[in-house]
């Protein structure tokens, strides 16, 4: 019978020999869906409107197929519904349906003209927590390449809609030129790949015999877990909090006894979902009087840049990396580009940890993998997709409630990982394709930097099942999510410091 771990750490040193505990291996196969072009091939002169047409062209056939199947031969008051190809083809009093892109006309949304006039303000207004108008001035539009039509009706009041999602609506146009919606449809969850599908392809293509498949199966020893954390919030003044030290020592097996060490050994990978660096300003900038006009400086400016947070983050990662592989997503406050998709944090920020990264030009991922935000890849055969939280935080501003799991579910059913980009969420102006369109349904969808932990499982029309995980901010809650890679069940760990003062 195992002895309690609480007594194990209070014993004096002894000559007892303990068995060596090996950490479970993690089969890791990331996708490069959100990697941007390098150097001169990346341009920002394009118009953002093309993204909406690309999204509509990609998702319109899927939502039309669902609408056609659901509304075929549908009758209302003796009239059979018919499909119209364009928004401008709708006729008053005619029962019809069509597909298009939702646009939310909200007076409280950010306005580019207001941004241009900020230089003339005495002080800029604070950012709004919600775009929802308390006086009911918000309008829902449906648009395509031909025009725009205002939508009204009860189904819209019980459905979560934001700018950029693709839907099909059925109804009639009234005398005021408004389309009264009777029913609406989403594209719903896309096809979901089977577990190990991508991992089986290289072995089958390289050898094409049963021996290679058996060798691959031998590597798939179950029982591993993945730790997911977000919002470490490392700052220059208070970087190494006691809770984060406890978390680090827990992953290394130093803050627990043998029985818990066996459980820690099952944690095969650490996923950090954004905001590893805390938002803040340098102390030098805060000490300057407010009426002093700042002079513009070029190059390195010690008064504007504080290297302490990234140094502490690098030390934290370098301490863990010899023991556990790490995948690092950037977040809103991290040293990466602000617009989505955020590119990997530059290895120059990690002078110690970058030794564990892959060599430049290598196709194989390194032990330390600094990735994009959003990110998707296969871990132990399961397709995982995650973000640092910006898309969900932006969707939150469009709706009245605060049900984060409902927002996450709708993003998957809309098949769009960032529907409000580029309207109110900064992103790169894509021209050839919209990478935010979800072409394959993940098995696990996690979102970092959420107000609280929450998780559920949703199902799709073709038997798809997705584990949704809202990952809380570690700096505020001290909570870490453990995902079982066999059952996809989740556990919550909390690191806290007892304070009796």
Average pLDDT metric? 86
Low-confidence stretches: 203-216, 281-287
- Decide which structural class fits the backbone: alpha/beta
Spatial strand order of the main sheet: 1-14-15-16-18-17
* Helicity, as a percent range: 10-25%
End-to-end C-alpha gap: 38 Å
> How much strand?
15-25%
For the biggest sheet, the summary is:
6 strands, mixed
Shape verdict: globular
Radius of gyration: 26 Å
Number of strands: 20
Number of helices: 13
Sum up the structure in keywords:
single chain, alpha/beta, 6-stranded mixed β-sheet, 13 helices, 21% strand, globular
Q: Can I get a quick summary?
A:
With 501 residues, this protein is an alpha/beta fold.
Explain the overall architecture.
The chain has 501 residues and is an alpha/beta fold. It contains 13 helices and 20 strands. Helices cover 23% and strands 21% of the residues.
